[in-house]
C-alpha cells in the first residue's frame, strides 16, 4: 500500500503567493521546494488580501481564513482561526512563523498535533511595539518556548538569547537567499541614477530600522552622492512623513519597489548599502545585499556581526548620526575597499543560507515531529 505523503500546515505569514515581507518570502521559497519533494503543503492565507481565491497554486493547497481587521489584531486573530482549522485538518505537522503566535501553541498541545515555530527576532524590543505591545511579544515568545514541540531560530545569536532569557534550546535554521541573480543596469535610469553614484537603504520606514539616523547622518556628510531610500509604511505615519520632508536634494525616496528586477538593479549598482536593522536575526535585506554584490555598511549589532562574519564583508557603524557621517567619509575616501567588498560579498552566502539546504533542514524537523 502506497504511503501517504507528509502533510504540513503553515500559517503566520500573509499567505501564498503573496510576497511582501521576510516571512512571506520564506513561506514561498520553502513551500515550493517542499512540494517538489513530495510533501503536501497547506498554507493559510489572509482572506482580505486575496481577491481571487484558488484552492491550489503551484501544487500548494490554500485556505483563506478571516480575521478581525485592525492594525493590532489582524495577524493574531487570523493565526488563532488558522490554528483551530489546522488542528482539525489532516496535517501531520503544523509549522508557525512569528513569535506573536506563541500562545496558540496551547491549542495544538491540547489537540496533540506536533508543532514547530520560527520565532524570528527580538520583537518585544522593537520601538513600534511600545508599552503593552512589547510586553505581549515578550510573553508570547516565552509561551512559544513552552507550547511548541520545536523552537526554530534563524541565527546563532538568537539561539543564545532564547537559551539565556527563557532557558529554551532551539534549532538554528538560517533564512535562505538566492545568490547570483542578475540585474539589468539600465533599470536604475528610471530614477535618473548612475552606477555607484548613490548609497542605498531598503526597508520599512519605521524606527526599528534606524532610517532616521542614517538619513540625518548622511545629510551632515559632504558626500556628493545620493541616498536612495526604498520602502515606506502602508499607513499614514508621522515618523515616515518627517523623513520624506527633510530638505536635501541628495535624498531620493522611491516608496515601495515591487518590481524585483528594478529592486535588484538598485542593489547591484549602489556604491554601498546601509543596513540599520537592529532587532532581528538573519535579515532578508542583508542577504539580498550580499547576493547582489554590495559593499555593506551595517549597524554594529551581534546579528550583523554574525552575518558579515565579523567585518569580512562590510564595515560597521555605531548608533549615532556622527558615526554615520564618519563611516560615509571613510567610504568616500576608500573606493578600493568598497570595490573589494563588492567583489567578495557573495562569499558571505555560505551553504547555511542556501534555500535548498534550508528546506532540507526543515524537512528533517517535520519528519521527526510527524514520527512522534
From TrEMBL:
GO terms for molecular function: glycosyltransferase activity. SUPFAM superfamilies: UDP-Glycosyltransferase/glycogen phosphorylase (SSF53756). It holds the Pfam family Glycos_transf_1. InterPro entries: DUF1972, Glyco_trans_1, Glycosyltransferase_grp1. The keyword Transferase applies. Residues 188-347 form the Glycosyl transferase family domain. Keywords: Transferase. It comes from the Bacteria. Residues 7-177 form the DUF1972 domain. Transmembrane segments: none annotated. PANTHER family: SULFOQUINOVOSYL TRANSFERASE SQD2 (PTHR45947). This is Glycosyltransferase family 1 protein. It comes from Echinicola soli.
Amino acid at each position: 500500500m502506497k504511503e501517504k505523503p507528509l502533510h504540513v500546515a503553515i500559517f503566520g505569514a500573509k499567505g501564498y503567493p503573496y510576497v511582501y515581507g521576510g516571512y512571506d518570502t520564506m513561506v514561498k521559497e520553502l513551500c515550493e521546494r517542499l512540494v517538489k519533494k513530495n510533501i503536501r503543503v497547506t498554507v493559510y492565507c489572509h482572506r482580505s488580501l486575496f481577491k481571487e481565491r484558488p484552492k491550489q497554486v503551484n501544487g500548494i493547497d490554500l485556505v483563506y481564513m478571516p480575521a478581525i481587521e485592525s492594525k493590532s489584531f489582524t495577524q493574531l486573530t487570523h493565526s488563532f482561526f488558522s490554528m483551530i482549522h489546522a488542528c482539525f485538518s489532516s496535517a501531520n505537522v503544523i509549522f508557525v512563523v512569528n513569535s506573536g503566535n506563541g500562545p496558540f501553541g496551547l491549542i495544538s498541545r491540547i489537540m496533540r498535533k506536533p508543532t514547530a515555530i520560527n520565532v524570528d527576532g527580538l520583537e518585544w524590543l522593537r520601538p513600534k511595539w511600545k508599552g503593552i505591545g512589547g510586553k505581549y511579544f515578550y510573553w508570547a515568545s516565552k509561551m512559544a518556548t513552552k507550547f511548541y514541540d520545536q523552537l526554530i531560530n534563524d541565527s546563532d545569536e538568537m539561539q543564545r538569547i532564547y537559551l539565556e532569557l527563557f532557558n529554551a534550546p532551539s534549532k538554528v535554521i538560517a533564512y535562505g537567499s538566492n545568490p547570483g541573480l542578475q540585474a539589468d543596469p539600465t533599470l536604475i535610469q528610471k530614477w535618473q541614477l548612475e552606477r555607484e553614484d548613490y548609497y542605498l537603504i531598503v526597508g520599512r520606514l519605521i524606527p526599528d530600522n534606524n532610517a532616521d539616523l542614517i538619513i540625518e547622518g548622511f545629510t551632515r556628510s559632504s558626500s556628493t552622492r545620493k541616498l536612495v531610500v526604498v520602502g515606506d509604511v502602508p499607513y499614514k505615519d508621522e515618523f515616515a512623513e518627517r523623513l520624506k520632508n527633510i530638505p536635501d536634494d541628495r535624498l531620493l525616496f522611491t516608496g515601495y519597489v515591487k518590481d524585483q528586477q528594478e529592486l535588484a538593479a538598485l542593489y547591484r549598482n549602489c556604491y554601498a548599502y546601509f543596513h540599520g536593522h537592529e532587532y532581528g536575526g538573519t535579515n532578508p535585506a542583508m542577504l539580498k545585499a550580499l547576493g547582489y554584490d554590495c559593499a555593506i555598511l551595517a549597524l554594529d549589532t551581534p546579528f550583523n556581526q554574525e552575518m558579515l562574519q565579523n567585518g569580512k564583508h562590510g564595515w560597521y557603524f555605531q548608533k549615532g548620526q556622527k558615526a554615520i557621517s564618519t563611516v560615509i567619509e571613510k567610504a568616500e575616501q576608500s573606493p578600493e575597499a568598497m570595490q573589494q567588498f563588492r567583489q567578495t560579498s557573495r562569499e558571505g552566502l555560505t551553504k547555511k543560507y542556501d534555500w535548498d539546504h534550508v528546506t532540507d533542514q526543515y524537512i528533517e524537523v517535520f519528519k521527526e515531529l510527524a514520527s512522534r
